[in-house]
Amino acid sequence: MAAKAVKITTFAWEGLDRRGTKVTGEMTSQSLALVRAQLRKQGINPGKIKKKSAPLFGKGKRIKPLAIAFFTRQMATMMRAGVPLLQSFDIIAEGVDNPNMTKLVLGLKNEVASGSTFAHALRQHPKYFDDLYCNLVDAGEQAGALETLLDRVATYKEKTEALKSKIKKAMTYPIAVLVVAMIVSGILLIKVVPQFKAVFQGFGAELPAFTQMVINLSEVIQAWWYIILIGLVALGFVFKHFHQKSEKFRNFLDRTYLKIPVVGGILYKSSVARYARTLSTTFAAGVPLVEALDSVAGATGNVVFRQGVLQVKQEVSTGIPLNYAMRATKIFPSLAVQMTAIGEESGALDNMLDKVATYYEEEVDNSVANLTTLMEPLIMAVLGVLVGGLVIAMYLPIFQLGSVV
Fold this sequence. Notes:
Layout: E1 9-16, E2 22-29, H1 32-41, E3 45-51, H2 65-80, H3 85-94, H4 99-113, H5 118-123, H6 131-143, H7 146-200, H8 209-245, H9 247-257, H10 263-284, H11 289-299, H12 303-316, H13 322-329, H14 334-346, H15 349-404
Antiparallel strand pairs: 1-2, 1-3
């Protein structure tokens, strides 16, 4: 049965230091009595102490994955320096700005202080520490090499979050282009085109087909803009609902993403990098290969690779070498397969997989940089076509009128 998590509260306090000077501050603890005791240890005579009120909207700052990666690196550094585990929690908690992160760290400390292992304490917070993270820490505790495993986990988390950041950057840029194009077009159609329409009505002549088409589009948007807006919002909610509830829909999207020009290549390389990085980390930690592949399957971030890794696991469990199993799936690049084969033959599989991960992470970095460079002129071209097309549509009747005169 899992131990009940200790409730941590933030207290605002006032008191007098050894010189009699009034001091104030905040402290996170389980109870007001513990706050008083801690203040006295620091040479402060506590006065008024009260619970800090919760934020009016929401629960404060969200704990981001990057914060968990930084926490892991801090723990690894302190363990290597010989700082005791419980003291490491205190030091980290004092240096954190996010109250929710402070509560999380002190909660871990209290669970460990009550007799739980570090891995067991982490498992009480699955929102922030997944099975792979907990299993690696557990392996480190059992092997008596927690500082080494924490260092590997920290490196793994840092590399993973850096890779995710690059992917988000690659996906955000094309979306930004579309959003800007839609906003500019909407403003022109709603605000600018109607002004020209009023002018054209005084001509008494038939308008060019292109101009009439733009005017008709403007009238439709002005008359039905609220329905269009509601439809777009509803479409967003439907997409989000199916993405959360339907595994088939998510799988369809994963396969579709890999087929998108340029972006698909970036996602493919990132999945290879995640596969190699995760397998390298788990294998180096002493996790048996077949068990490690279970964790790897969920970390690739794409259903195509997840199914491929599960197929690799089945074949490896029957005695087939890892590189042969990878080649049979036909989804891994030949470089990754060949490097894996060299690693198996030389007995340095984790090292070779680490090199594969580093290579494809750099490939993703280069691809994202190239995409960013390519998108800049593309943005100008798209906006130029939209704005230029609308301007031409509005000025065509004026040009025709000038030619008649």
